[in-house]
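Journal club prep — side note

Before the paper discussion, L.F. wants everyone to see what a predicted structure for a comparable chain looks like in token form. Sequence:
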Amino acid sequence: MIVGTIEDLGLASEVVRDDLTLSIKRDPRPEGYSIAAHEGQWVGRLRRISTAKLRHWGLPGLVDDAELAISELITNALLHGTGARVAFRFLLAADVLVLEVEDGSPEPALISTADPYDENGRGMFIVSTLSTLCGVTPDGTRTWCIFTIPTAPAPRRNR
């Protein structure tokens, strides 16, 4: 995982095809308490919205990995974030898909390995494995991942 922002990647605005940011208002809850049901429903909503966008742009091959990364990033933000909101960003450029989540917590997400019987601790490992690159901003409040968009193979010509 690298430390930096998606802006550091230098995506020029002319190559951006789609840029959506949605904000989820969080209810205050004591540490260790479960996520409120209405907040947890956003995980599925954001997966469905992103799936529709990827299919619209002709990128169904990214759907499964993007859905899993969204589930992990949003769930981590809802569980561990400290801000009054969680912001989700879906940015589709000419050759990459960027997923970014801001949770207000200065504690950066970490890639860790879990023991076989652990129920938690695999989220960022899964995201880092599925994505081309993942990172966290220097202040720790935003976690992001990038998927390279597969290029279509050249059409075969009959001889």
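L.F.'s comment for the group: Helices lie at 37-56, 63-80, 123-130. Keep this in mind when we get to the figures.
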